[in-house]
C-alpha cells in the first residue's frame, strides 16, 4: 500500500475514532450527571475507580503488548502465526483476572455493604468482562491492521449505547440493586462489542469484497488457533517483541492509571472523594481523550507502516522519511495548539462548567481547582501522545528494552510523588504528579526524535514552536477571561454567567482567527486530510 494511501486511511481512522470518542464521552458524562441524582457518590467511586481499574488493568496487561507487536510492520506476514500469538491474550487474561480478582476481594478495603451493596459480584463481573473482551482480540487487530474504519465505529458505538440504555433503565427501576446494575451493563457492553466483530468477519470472509482486497484470511476457521506442520506455532520475532512491550506495558499502566492505584491501595481518599475526583477527571479529559487518543492509536499504525522499525533514517526510503517528518511536525503543531487552547480557556471556565454539570456538589470545594490543574495536564497529554506514538513505532527491540528501565524509574518516582503530593495537596496532588512524570516522558521522546532526524535535513520538532503572535493572543485571552471570571462568575446570576460566556466566546474566536492566519500549513493539513 502506498504511503499516501496509508496516510489517507489513517487520518480517516483517526477522525472516525475521534467522533467515536465524542460519543463515548458525551454519553458517559450524561450518564454520570443522570446517575448522580439517583445513586450515592460512594457507589460511583467504587464503580468508576475500583472496579474499572480492575477491568482496565486486566485488559491492558493481557493485550497491550500483543497489539503493539502485531501492528508493527507490513500487513504482508504469516497471519496464521500472528493470530496464534494473539489468542495467547485469553489465557493471560484469565490469569490476571483471577489473580487481581483475589487481590480486590481479599486484600483491599471492602466497601460498607449498606452503602455499596454486592461488591463481590461486581468484582467477579468486571473480571469476567475483561476475559470476554479478549476473545475478540484477533478480530480487532486484523481489522485495525487493515484499517477497517467503519467496523470499529459501529461496533463500539452499538456497545456503548447498549450499555448506557441498560444502565439508565436499571437505575430508574431498581436503584437498590447497587453494583448489579453496573455489572450487568459492563457484561452487555463487552458481549455486544465482541459479537459485532465476529458477525462482521462471518459476513466479510469469503465475500467478493474480501477477494477484491486480497484479504489474507479466507474463512472463520483461520481466525482460530491453528497448528501448521513443520512450522513454529508463533512468529518468534513477534513473540520476543511482545515480551519487550509487555515489560514496558506493565510500567506504562502504572503511569497511566497511577492515581487510581494510589487511591485503591493506599486509601488516601475515601470512596466519596474518589467518586468526585473521577467525575472531574473524566470531565477534564473530555476533549483530550476524544482527540489525542485516536490520533495516537491511528498514527502509530501510520508511522509503523511507512518507516521500518529499528533502521537508521539514512537507509529508509527518503520519500517516506519526508512524509513521516512532515506529518509528525504538523501533528505536533495541531495537538500543541489544541492543548494550549484548553489550558488557557479551561482555567477561567472550570468552575462554571462544574456548576452547570453537577451543581454545587462539584463546583464547591476542590472541584474547580482540580479541573484547572487538569487543563494544564491536557497540554502535557497532547504533546506526549504524539511524541510517544512516533517513538514506540520506530524503536527496535533493544531500545524498547532499554526504555523499560526508564519506565521502571518513572513508575517508582510517580508513586512516590503521588503519595506525598496527595498528602500535601489532597486530590490535586495526583494531577501535579501526572504533570511531572508526563514531562519526563516527553523529554525522553523529544530526545529520541531529535537523534533520529539529526542526520537528515528534516526538523519535525519545530512543530512545538507556535507563532509568537499567536502566543501573544493566548496570553491576552487568558488575562481577559481570568478577569471576567472574577467579575461575572459564578454566584452573580445567569445574566452575569452569560456575559462571562460571551467574553470567552469572543476571545476564543479571536484565537481561532489568529490561528488560521499564522498557522496556514497546519490548517491546510487538517483540511486536506
Overview of the molecule:
The protein is mostly helical and 529 residues long. It has three domains: 3-221, no CATH class; 271-458, no CATH class; 466-528. It has 21 helices and no strands. It has helices spanning 3-35, 41-70, 79-87, 89-106, 119-134, 137-145, 149-173, 179-204, 208-212, 236-256, 258-266, 271-284, 286-306, 318-358, 360-363, 367-394, 397-425, 428-453, 468-488, 494-518, 520-528. α7 (149-173) packs antiparallel against α8 and α14 (318-358) runs parallel beside α19 (468-488). It starts with a helix and ends with a helix.
Query: In sequence order, what are the helices and strands, one letter per element?
Result: HHHHHHHHHHHHHHHHHHHHH
Count the E strands: 0
Structural class by helix and strand composition: mainly alpha
Residue share in helix: over 70%
Report the sheet with the most strands, covering strand number, pairing sense and barrel closure: none
Overall pLDDT, averaged? 83
In DSSP terms (H or I, runs of 4 or more residues), the helix count works out at 21
What's the number of domains?
3
Question: pLDDT below 50 for ≥5 consecutive residues: which ranges?
Answer: none
Distance between the termini: 17 Å
Mind telling me the C-alpha Rg?
A: 23 Å
**Beta-strand share of residues:** under 5%
Shape: globular
How is the secondary structure organized here?
Elements: H1 3-35, H2 41-70, H3 79-87, H4 89-106, H5 119-134, H6 137-145, H7 149-173, H8 179-204, H9 208-212, H10 236-256, H11 258-266, H12 271-284, H13 286-306, H14 318-358, H15 360-363, H16 367-394, H17 397-425, H18 428-453, H19 468-488, H20 494-518, H21 520-528
Amino acid at each position: 500500500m502506498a504511503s499516501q494511501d496509508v496516510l489517507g486511511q489513517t487520518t480517516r481512522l483517526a477522525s472516525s475514532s475521534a467522533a467515536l470518542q465524542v460519543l463515548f464521552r458525551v454519553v458517559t458524562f450524561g450518564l454520570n450527571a443522570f446517575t448522580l441524582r439517583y445513586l450515592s457518590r460512594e457507589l460511583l467511586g467504587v464503580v468508576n475507580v475500583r472496579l474499572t481499574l480492575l477491568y482496565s488493568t486486566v485488559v491492558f496487561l493481557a493485550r497491550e503488548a500483543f497489539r503493539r507487536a502485531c501492528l508493527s510492520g507490513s500487513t504482508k506476514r504469516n497471519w496464521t502465526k500472528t493470530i496464534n500469538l494473539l489468542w495467547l491474550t485469553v489465557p493471560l487474561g484469565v490469569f490476571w483476572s483471577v489473580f487481581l480478582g483475589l487481590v480486590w476481594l481479599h486484600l483491599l478495603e471492602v466497601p460498607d455493604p449498606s452503602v455499596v451493596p454486592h461488591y463481590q459480584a461486581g468484582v467477579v463481573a468486571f473480571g469476567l468482562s475483561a476475559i470476554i473482551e479478549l476473545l475478540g482480540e484477533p478480530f480487532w487487530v486484523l481489522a485495525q491492521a487493515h484499517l477497517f474504519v467503519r467496523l470499529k465505529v459501529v461496533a463500539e458505538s452499538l456497545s456503548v449505547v447498549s450499555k448506557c440504555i441498560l444502565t439508565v433503565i436499571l437505575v430508574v427501576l431498581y436503584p437498590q440493586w447497587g453494583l448489579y446494575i453496573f455489572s450487568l451493563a459492563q457484561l452487555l457492553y463487552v458481549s455486544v462489542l465482541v459479537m459485532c466483530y465476529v458477525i462482521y468477519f462471518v459476513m466479510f470472509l469469503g465475500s467478493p469484497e474480501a477477494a477484491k482486497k486480497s484479504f489474507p484470511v479466507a474463512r472463520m476457521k483461520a481466525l482460530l488457533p491453528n497448528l501448521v506442520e513443520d512450522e513454529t506455532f508463533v512468529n518468534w520475532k513477534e513473540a520476543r517483541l511482545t515480551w519487550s512491550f509487555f515489560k514496558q506495558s506493565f510500567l506504562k499502566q502504572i503511569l497511566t492509571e497511577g492515581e487510581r492505584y494510589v487511591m485503591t491501595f493506599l486509601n488516601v481518599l475515601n470512596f466519596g472523594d474518589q467518586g468526585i475526583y473521577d467525575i472531574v477527571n473524566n470531565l477534564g479529559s473530555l476533549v483530550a481523550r476524544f482527540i489525542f487518543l485516536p490520533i495516537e492509536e491511528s498514527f502509530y499504525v501510520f508511522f509503523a507502516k511507512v518507516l521500518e522499525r529499528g533502521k537508521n533514517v539514512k537507509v529508509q526510503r527518503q520519500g517516506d522519511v519526508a512524509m513521516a517528518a512532515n506529518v509528525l511536525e504538523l501533528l505536533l503543531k495541531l495537538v500543541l495548539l489544541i492543548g494550549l487552547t484548553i489550558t488557557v480557556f479551561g482555567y477561567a471556565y472550570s468552575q462554571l462548567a462544574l456548576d452547570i454539570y453537577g451543581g454545587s456538589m462539584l463546583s464547591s470545594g476542590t472541584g474547580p481547582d482540580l479541573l484547572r490543574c487538569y487543563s494544564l495536564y491536557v497540554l502535557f497529554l497532547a504533546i506526549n501522545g504524539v511524541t510517544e506514538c512516533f517513538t514506540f513505532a520506530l524503536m527496535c527491540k533493544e531500545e524498547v528494552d532499554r526504555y523499560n528501565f526508564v519506565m521502571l524509574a518513572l513508575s517508582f518516582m510517580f508513586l512516590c510523588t503521588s503519595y506525598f503530593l496527595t498528602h500535601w495537596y489532597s486530590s490535586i496532588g495526583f494531577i501535579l504528579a501526572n504533570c511531572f512524570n508526563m514531562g519526563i516522558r516527553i523529554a525522553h521522546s523529544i530526545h529520541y526524535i531529535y537523534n533520529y532526524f539529526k542526520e537528515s535535513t528534516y526538523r519535525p520538532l519545530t512543530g512545538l514552536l507556535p507563532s509568537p503572535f499567536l502566543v501573544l493572543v493566548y496570553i491576552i485571552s487568558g488575562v481577559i477571561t481570568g478577569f471576567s471570571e472574577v467579575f461575572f462568575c459564578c454566584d452573580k446570576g445567569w445574566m452575569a454567567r452569560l456575559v462571562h460566556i460571551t467574553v470567552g466566546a469572543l476571545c476564543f474566536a479571536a484565537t481561532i482567527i489568529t490561528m488560521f492566519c499564522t498557522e496556514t500549513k497546519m490548517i491546510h493539513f487538517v483540511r486536506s486530510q
